[in-house]
Amino acid sequence: MTGSWYIVQFKSNSHRVATRNLKQQGFKTFLPLQVRTRKSRTKFSTNIEPLFPGYMFVSIDLGKEPWHKINSTLGVSRLICQDGIPMKVPKEIVSALMSRCDSSGQLLPPEALASGDSVRILSGALANFIATVETFDSEQRIWVLMEIMGQVTRVQVALDQIKLQN
After folding, report:
1. Whole-angstrom distance between the N-terminal and C-terminal Cα of the chain?
2. What pTM was estimated for this model as a whole?
């Protein structure tokens, strides 16, 4: 299938039903998943959940496939459209997400970072600066130390903004 990627909104907690029924109709789907740990009173529970709650990607060739039937698929709320035409998602975005997932769609852990690692800032106002990882947390927030104007400054960056230096 050489279709483009579009976004489908699925009904609450119906991603498995929606995926199964879309695949039975011949549509290719992609649902990125993440491991999430939550605290409920005194217990911690770990679940695998959609990365984008309520949404998944579906590949459609608009000229060849009857995409209107997606809206009546069991488990699906609607295909995201603008003026009656499905809104295309850039292939680069879906490809980048797919490259960060295993075969079941679950996000792979990021490159192993440790406190003291040297990283290069890839984007933003501090692009191309070299920094040292100070701390990071499970929400993928990373704090780095970098020298700016002769002083060491603590800066928060996103995981996708840095690259581990060799």
Report:
1. 39
2. 0.66
